[in-house]
Structure formats: C-alpha cells, structure tokens
Amino acid sequence: MGSWTLDDIPWDRFERAKLDPEIVRIVKAAALVEHNGAAYAHHLCRIFADDPAFQETARRWGEEEIQHGAALARWARLADPEFDFDRAFARFQAGFHVDFDSARSRRGSRAGEMVARCVVEIGTSAYYTALREGTAEPVLQEICRHIAADELRHYRLFYKNLDRCLRTEPIGRLARLRVALGRVAESEDDELAYAYYAANERELLYDRRRYSRAYASRAFRLYRPHHVERGVAMLLKAVGLTPNGRLGLLASRLAWWAIRYRAARLGNMAA
Ligand SMILES: [Fe+2]
Ligand SMILES: [Fe+2]
C-alpha cells in the first residue's frame, strides 16, 4: 500500500459552504474511474505474465488507485449524502467495457504499454494538482494533495519500467510519441464520459458526445499554464525527447493553446 490511508484525511474539517457543485460532479466520476484500478492491474499482470516482480508492483499500484477511488467516494458522499457509490460503480462497470483479460497490450508492445501508463499518470497528476488548486474545500484539497503525490510516483514507477522494457524490445521515439499522443486523444473516449454519466445521471440514456463534453467542460477550466508545462515535460521525457529547451517550450505552448481552445469551445456549447 501507499504511504497514507483514509484515516490520514481530516474528514472533520469538511466545509459545506466551500463546495462547488460542478466540482462535486467531476469528483464522483473520478471516484469511479479510480476505483476500477484492479481491472487495469489485472491487465498489466496478464501482459507481464512472466514477470512476477513487476506483477507484484502492478498489484500494489492497483490497490493505491482503488484507495484514490475510496477517498474521493467518501468525500463525494459527504458533499452529497444521496450519492450511492456502489450503485454508480455497478452502472459504470456494466456500461464501460475494455478487454482487461487480454494478455496483449493495445499499444503493440510492453514498452508501448508503459508509455501509455506514463501518459495516464501524467494526466492524473496534473488533474489532481489542478483540482487541489481549484477547490476551496479543505478536505478535498488534502485528498488531492495525497493523490497527486501518488500519481507522480506512479509515473516514475512506469517510466522506470519503460526504461527496462526498452532494453529488451527497443521501440523508436516516433513510435513512442505515436502511442503517447494516441493515449492523450483517448481521454475524450468513453471512460471519463461514461463515469460522469454513471455517477451523475439517473434518467437519460448515455450519449458519448454529451457526457464527454459535460465532463471535459468542468475539468478543463481547472488547468493553468504551469500544469500543462509540467505535463508536457514529463510526456517528452517518456517518449525519449529532451523536455528542456525550445522543443519543450513550443510543445507546452501548443498544448496550452489546445486546452484553451477546447475549453472555450466547450464553454460556448454549454452556453
Ligand atoms: Fe489515481
Ligand atoms: Fe496513478
């Protein structure tokens, strides 16, 4: 397990007056995705079937992700006592399918799988940092502080394993970049959209575009340039490019522009 438990969270400092209902909605969705960590750990264990040491690491990682889900779910229940986490999680699992039992990585290789995992941890570490800075509620701030630190450690863990995989199955920078950008683009796929739907909607039928926008419009507004700069530097490092210098600067400017453009479009659609 990680370095903290739910008992380390100062639940009694919860301040209802500082709640933002839009943040409560995205925290509920995040709780479902995080709680699904065991499924991803299982998939990693299948991909690294002949590597018991890494399987052990993957299982511990999965437990930490589940704990993230448990902490966020408990906070969401404080914020909204009517939130039924078990019911929402059952709906999420029933509606969101990935073949977690496959022993083949969708990224074409073990190294590719590690690049994709690095991208996810970059995304979550930026997200929980942005959420901590974007909320005024002290208990959520504290939860996000713990989770963001874990996500950064997870990135390092997968980066280290990527390095190891590259020694036995080298894949070029271009192939790594392709996997990384592909995984970034997948953030608008079903997982977050369906989690948002399962956590927040009880009557309407699922519509990917609608719920993808609903989630993204609330999440994107939390990001600031320093979150993007740091994320881009971590991503460049994972694909084997130099994060400092002109390339890093150009890439983070492009990424910040893309986020602002997307946030503005989502804002207009919601208006
Ligand atoms: Fe997490
Ligand atoms: Fe993580």
What does this structure look like?
There is one protein chain. With 271 residues, the chain is mainly alpha-helical. The protein contains eleven helices and no strands. The protein has helices at 21-35, 37-47, 52-79, 85-95, 110-134, 138-168, 173-185, 190-200, 208-220, 225-238, 246-270. Helix 9 (208-220) packs across helix 11 (246-270). It is globular, with a radius of gyration of 18 Å. The mean pLDDT is 93. Bound molecules: fe (ii) ion (2 copies).
Strand-helix topology:
Elements: H1 21-35, H2 37-47, H3 52-79, H4 85-95, H5 110-134, H6 138-168, H7 173-185, H8 190-200, H9 208-220, H10 225-238, H11 246-270
N/C terminus separation: 44 Å
Question: Helix coverage percent of residues?
Answer: over 70%
Structural class: mainly alpha
> What is the rounded Rg?
18 Å
Describe this structure in a few short sentences.
The chain has 11 helices and no strands.
Core attributes:
0% strand; globular; binds fe (ii) ion; 73% helix; mainly alpha; 271 residues
